[in-house]
């Protein structure tokens, strides 16, 4: 004994949120046809069947469940059906016609997951003939040619659809970006109240219903007063067994929508989806005030009107915006010469009427480096600067809105000048902006009933109930401007890009001029420094030599006869003069390194350089009992006298800072490197002296920087600065490492060939 159950979704009865309503699985159908769901071939076993099949074909649903479909088909008809299914593509223009007791049934097929769903509808007028597609297409082409705008075309399509279908009222309903709808065209019986221009809130068609309109482009309700027919199936313990009826023609209607239509006084409907770029653009909504259904092919004729209109949506909208785009482009082209050829182009733009005409704004403001350039009607400066401050901290890139109040609460104080705004950032910063402003446009919207009462609790408070009244309800909308057209938004972005480029060029030009002036000042300063160097190396040397000579004579000729109060100051004067002489010599050496030595590069054997330095420091090496070990060094393209000074300073530095009581050991190690931009030859000079803390590794290369007192270690503090400058002249690097009490190491890296002196 088969156990039978229905799959009616009883959660629909206790619904509390219409946006959560699972309208694709009602578990029931409308009563003007019947439904059978079969498993796949070859047997096509009946797994689902509507409870009213006996009223149509005289066989109970209980006896058919679990049986092959051939049970209700004659053998020949069943073979025709299997051949029809085997062709694969289900063509709505060539439906399968099922006959029983001389009654023809239009049989539409679709797949619901693995189930093949058959929906049987008797032909209402017995007609099984295709409509006159040629004449219908010819009439549409004529309408398309006569219509001067998209609105005109919609009005013609509404009238033609009503002529084809015979419904009492046909409306074309267009959605805005929030899916609120507006009736933009209407054809109706003369005695009916017009709905043209009425708005309907987005809650009238919730998201899941809009999704179904995208999947199933035609929807018919024959009688809003029908009693839903349950779909039956064998209870085989399959959990959540149901049937997705998203593509069904007979699918039962949401109780909320049925009540909605009943409140409107509508008895039957036909709805055709209008889809543009895979989004629901609108609907052709047909209303009838008594029972009505349509033959299959008449439905197709009505749906063809929808296809005709859909094919024209993009074309007509582009045509409607073409004139606007031409005007905007002309304004943009007139602005470009001001940008490109005027030095003070921001002031120039400020006085160009085309800047406002570019977006049909009433006011425009450019914010650049804290300065405001404005034209047209703009808010008072305190309110404007407050808005700009908010934008600078809010906008990332761009913002466009016709309802600034939704984003900026204080917008109601400036709605007479800035209810809507286009704002774009300039020069990759949120501080510099350009904004176009539009004032408030007070707008009256005619709603079909109060939108705040789109869905209300019913008397029992159990589920939601649609509003009862569809009488005209007029709303006055504040704090919004005229909508910005996409053409205007794109034009604003184009000008912003051009303005960004010119501001960047202007900035670079100013920086170039600033650096040019700075360079001139540096040249003047350098000339003065050269004069000071000349004074230091010539004018100061002469009196310094005299001081040294006179002090030397005093100390050498009569030292024994001098009282200590005279000999000591003279000796200190002599030492100071000697230190001054060393300092002047080092300053002169350092200044020579800043000269252009580009032509002084020549191949130089570094081994010979080390031999010359060893000879020059022979006495110091012997006095300190120092040992100098060196690897074989390469021949490099260098400035020979500078390299001599480099190694002289480094070796002398190692001798100077040797550890007390420990003979200095100086090692020079060479490592060839893979040729890179930074170095191809590494030479390391290491010693075993007093070393230094690694935190001073950069400080020791700075001019006049010393880590020890003059009394403990004599010197001018310029020697290592000279070494760093020499390495920079050779496009090389010098790095120092050290450890207190353990010694120091200087790592030199030379490029293969300096780029400014090819060999």
UniProtKB/TrEMBL annotation:
Domain Histidine kinase: 535-754
Record keywords: Chromophore, Coiled coil, Kinase, Phosphoprotein, Photoreceptor protein, Receptor, Sensory transduction, Transferase
GO molecular function, one term: photoreceptor activity
GO-annotated biological processes: detection of visible light; regulation of DNA-templated transcription
Keyword Coiled coil applies: yes
Entry coiled-coil feature ranges: 508-535
Biological source species: Dawidia cretensis
Protein name, per record: histidine kinase
Residue ranges of every copy of the Phytochrome chromophore attachment site domain listed in the record: 149-311
UniProt record similarity statement: In the N-terminal section; belongs to the phytochrome family.
EC number: 2.7.13.3
UniProt xrefs under InterPro entries: GAF, GAF-like_dom_sf, HATPase_C_sf, HATPase_dom, His_kinase_dom, HisK_dim/P_sf, PAS-like_dom_sf, PAS_2
Keyword Transferase: yes
Catalytic activity: ATP + protein L-histidine = ADP + protein N-phospho-L-histidine
């Amino acid at each position: 004994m088969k156990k039978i159950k229905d799959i009616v979704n009883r959660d629909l009865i206790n619904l509390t949120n219409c946006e959560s309503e699972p309208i694709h699985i009602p578990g029931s159908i409308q009563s003007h046809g019947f439904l059978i769901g079969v498993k796949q071939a070859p047997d096509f076993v009946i797994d689902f069947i509507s409870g009213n099949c006996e009223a149509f074909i005289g066989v109970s649903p209980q006896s058919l469940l679990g049986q092959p479909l051939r049970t209700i088909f004659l053998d020949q008809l069943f073979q025709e059906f299997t051949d029809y299914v085997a062709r694969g593509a289900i063509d709505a223009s060539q439906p399968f016609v099922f006959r029983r007791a001389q009654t023809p049934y239009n049989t539409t097929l679709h797949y619901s997951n693995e189930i093949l769903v058959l929906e049987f509808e008797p032909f209402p007028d017995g007609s099984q003939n295709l409509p006159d597609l040629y004449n219908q297409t010819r009439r549409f082409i004529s309408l398309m040619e006569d219509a001067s705008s998209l609105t005109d075309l919609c009005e013609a399509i509404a009238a033609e659809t009503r002529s084809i279908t015979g419904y009492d009222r046909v409306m074309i309903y267009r959605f805005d970006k929030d899916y609120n709808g507006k009736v933009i065209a209407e054809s109706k019986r003369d005695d009916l109240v017009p709905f043209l221009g009425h708005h309907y809130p987005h809650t009238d068609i919730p998201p899941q219903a809009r999704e179904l309109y995208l999947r199933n482009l035609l929807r018919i309700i024959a009688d809003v007063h029908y009693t839903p027919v349950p779909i039956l199936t064998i209870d085989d313990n399959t959990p959540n067994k149901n049937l997705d009826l998203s593509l069904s023609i007979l699918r039962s209607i949401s109780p909320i929508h049925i009540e909605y239509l009943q409140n409107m006084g509508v008895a039957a409907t036909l709805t055709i989806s209008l889809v543009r770029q895979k989004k629901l653009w609108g609907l052709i909504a047909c209303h009838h005030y008594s029972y009505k259904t349509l033959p299959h092919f008449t439905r197709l004729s009505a749906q063809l009107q929808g296809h005709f209109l859909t094919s024209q949506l993009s074309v007509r909208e582009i045509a409607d915006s073409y004139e606007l785009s031409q005007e905007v482009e002309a304004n943009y082209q007139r602005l470009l010469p001001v940008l490109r050829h005027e030095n003070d182009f921001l002031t120039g733009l400020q006085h160009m009427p085309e800047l406002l005409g570019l977006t049909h704004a009433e006011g425009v403001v450019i914010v650049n480096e804290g300065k405001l350039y404005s034209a047209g009607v703009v808010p008072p400066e305190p309110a404007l600067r407050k808005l700009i401050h908010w934008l600078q901290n809010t906008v990332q890139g761009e913002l466009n809105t016709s309802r600034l109040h939704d984003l900026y609460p204080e917008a109601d104080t400036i709605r007479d000048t800035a209810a809507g705004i286009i704002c774009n950032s300039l020069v990759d910063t949120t501080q510099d902006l350009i904004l176009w402003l539009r004032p408030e446009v007070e707008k009256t919207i005619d709603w079909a009933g109060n939108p705040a009462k789109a869905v209300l609790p019913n008397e029992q408070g159990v589920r939601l109930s649609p509003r009862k009244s569809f009488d005209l309800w007029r709303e006055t909308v504040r704090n919004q401007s005229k909508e910005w057209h996409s053409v205007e938004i794109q034009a604003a972005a184009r000008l912003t890009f051009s303005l960004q480029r010119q501001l960047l060029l202007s900035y670079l030009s100013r920086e170039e001029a600033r650096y040019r002036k700075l360079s001139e000042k540096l040249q003047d300063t350098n000339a003065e420094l050269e004069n000071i160097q000349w004074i230091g190396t010539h004018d100061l040397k002469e009196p310094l030599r005299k001081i040294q000579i006179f002090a030397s004579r005093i100390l050498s000729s009569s030292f024994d006869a001098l009282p200590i109060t005279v000999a000591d100051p003279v000796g200190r004067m002599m030492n100071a003069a000697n230190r001054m002489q060393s300092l002047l010599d080092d300053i002169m050496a350092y200044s020579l390194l800043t000269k252009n030595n580009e032509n002084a590069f020549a191949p130089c054997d570094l081994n010979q350089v080390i031999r010359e330095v060893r000879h020059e420091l022979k006495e110091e090496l012997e006095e300190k009992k120092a040992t100098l070990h060196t690897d074989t060094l390469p021949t490099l393209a260098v400035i020979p006298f500078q390299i001599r000074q480099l190694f002289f300073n480094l070796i002398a530095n190692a001798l100077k800072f040797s550890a007390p009581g420990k003979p200095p050991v100086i090692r020079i190690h060479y490592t060839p490197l893979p040729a890179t931009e930074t170095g191809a030859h590494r030479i390391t000079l290491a010693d075993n002296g007093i070393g230094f803390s690694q935190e001073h590794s950069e400080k020791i290369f700075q001019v006049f920087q010393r880590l020890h007192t003059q009394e403990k270690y004599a010197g001018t503090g310029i020697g290592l600065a000279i070494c760093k400058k020499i390495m920079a002249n050779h496009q090389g690097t010098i790095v120092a490492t050290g450890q207190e009490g353990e010694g120091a190491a200087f790592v030199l890296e030379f490029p293969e060939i300096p780029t400014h002196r090819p060999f």
